[in-house]
Structure formats: structure tokens, C-alpha cells
Fold this protein.
Amino acid sequence: MSEDQFMGNLYQRFPVTVEKGKGSHVWDVDGKEYIDCMGGYGVALVGHQNQRVNNAIKEQVDKIITVHSSLYNKTREEFLKTLIGLAPKGLTQVHLNNSGAEAIEAAMKFARKFTGKKGMVAMKGSYHGKSFGALSLTFNPKYKKAFKPLVEKVSFASFGDIESLRSVIDDDTAFVILEPIQGESGIIVAPDGFLQDVRKLCDEKGILLIFDEIQAGLGRTGRLWACEHWNTAPDILCLAKGIAGGVPMGATLVRPDILAAISKGEHSSTFGGNPLSCAAGTAALKALTEDGLIENSEKMGKIFREGLEKLKENHTMIREIRGKGLMIGIEMKFEVKDILMGLMKKGVLMLYSGRNILRILPPLVISEEDITKVLHALDSVLSEEEQKKVVQG
């Protein structure tokens, strides 16, 4: 494809040129329709061409696109009020930025400045981004090897193991960061009680707790915040992906005493909080909370997982089904590349995590009819792959 000659070999590319989208569907340049279970890696949260978001963007374009945060803007004010009104308890202030990695970078700086400590603890299996700071907190060595040395004083604990975490923290630990549901490593759900135990340990040791809900937050799991499943709130919450309905935006929500430790000029963002993103963000948050999208995520996620469990009974290739809401992982016993390509031929776009895990992150507007079609397509592709292996073996 022509893009490749300009963009280098930085992405795993799929042979589909997307022209337009609507709801949970996209169409390529040849008019072929696909059910979108990729969702722009979770960005198309409220659906393609969400009418609230489209209208908000069109209205804002006719007013002004950029207002730096050294000036005031009513569109940004409305977004901030809406976001903080929905935030977990105690998180009443926010730094607006442009991406998940930037949200993480801000959280790292805020936590270290507030505590005066340097040590950082993340989880094995974590993924927090590819900028130098965020990459330092990301576990997979394949992303990091070529770019060392990264930020120092980072330790990793086993996800779900409180004793492992206890063993790596010390008097210089500033924060613990984790995803309530790990996305990149294959939709790994925190075991019951773990987040509560981490919260308790951090409180005992005077350590800040940061939740990365860049992928799992904003209704993706059937709750507005993934941490609600465990009745646990962080000191800092990192958001991005679908927060502005597809327009780039990131946000770092914090306790007010933490943000008060940052002096003027120590952290800022040229584009962060621009009115265009804020208008789209307010519309996206209203779509989530007023149009039943969070409830639909919970309901459709249950239907999806029940259907996948039935497929598991008929296909020995499937090892495990994991997830909450519309954040679902299908761990296979074999590599999934051929399965992804087979699904594309049948009009379904799906993600992967590693070599053997299918990852499902559709727009939260997906219908039961679409889910049924996806399950039929997956059933057919798995049958074809199993037949190939019989012939080959």
C-alpha cells in the first residue's frame, strides 16, 4: 500500500484500507463492510460517527480550534466539570494532554515530585506506552531492549501477587502503577482482592497508587471505571483512547494536594485541553453516561463471552476466555495470524495480543446481531483452521 513508502516499518499492517465508519462498522475503499472489533485499539469507544461527537466538533470548529491553557476557555471548562463530576472519589483535579503515554508521563512526574521519592513499581505484563518514561514502566523486553538505558529505579512485581509487590517496594518507592485489567498482555483481569490489598499496602507505606485505565476505563468493562469492579480508587488515574470519541486526548486525574506540589512551568502541554478535543470529550462522556453505552457494554459483553464459551466447547484450539464487559481476550493454543486473516475475509476486524491471543475491543454501541455474526465467523474460521491441522498432521 502507498502509505508504507512514507511511514516505514513501524506498524503491523493489515491489508484493509478503511474509507468510512458508522457505529460498530467500517467500510474499505472497495465498499466491503466489516464489523469492527478492533475499535481503533479501543479509541472508537462511542462508535464511529457518533452523532453527539460529530455535532460537537462541527460546532466548535466554527468557534475556535486552539486556546492554550495560559488563557481561559468555556469549552474546556465544561469538559473539566463533566469529567471531574464522573471521576472516582477524591480525584478533583486534572492535567489535560494528548495521549495515553503523555497521561502516564504526567503521572510519573506528579508522583515523584509530591512524594520526593524516586522508586517506581509496575507489574509484570504491564503496558503503559512507548515514550521513554512510559516505556520504562512497560514490562515486555522486546519494546525496551534497543532503547536502554531508560528511566532508572523501576521494579516489577507479579500481577495479582501482593507478596511479590511487598518484596519490591522500599523506603524510596514513590508509586505503584497498574492496569486493573492488563490489555496488551492478553486481557488479564486482576484477581479478586488484589486491588484492595494494593490500596491497603500503599496507604501503609505512604506510596501513591496509580491506575492506568487508558484501555480499561470509560465504560469499556461494563462500569464507568474498571476499578469500580473492586471498589477501589487510586490517587492518580490515567485516561486516553476513547475519552474524546476518536479525537486525540489524554487526561491525568489527581488528588488536589498532589497537583498542588507542581510549580508553574514544571509540566505543561501545548495542545492539551484544546477546545476541539474538549468539545468532543464532553460529547463522548455524555454519550457514555446518557445513551446507555456503559449498560450496553455490560450486557453485550456477557452475551459475547457466553457465546465464546460455547465455541470453546466445540473448538479445542481455544484455551481460555477472559475479560469484563467489551474488553475480551481469547487465548488460543496456536498462533492467531491465520485466524485474523480468515476473519477479515468474512468481514470481521479483530486485534491480537502476542502470538496466540485474540483481543476484542469493539465500540460500545455494538449490537447482539453483530455479535452473533462475529461468533458465526469465528466458528467458521476455527473449523477451517482445525481441518487444515488435521490434513497437515
The first helix runs from residue 4 to 7. The radius of gyration is 21 Å. Residues 160 and 191 are 6 Å apart (CA to CA). The chain is about 40% helix and 20% strand.
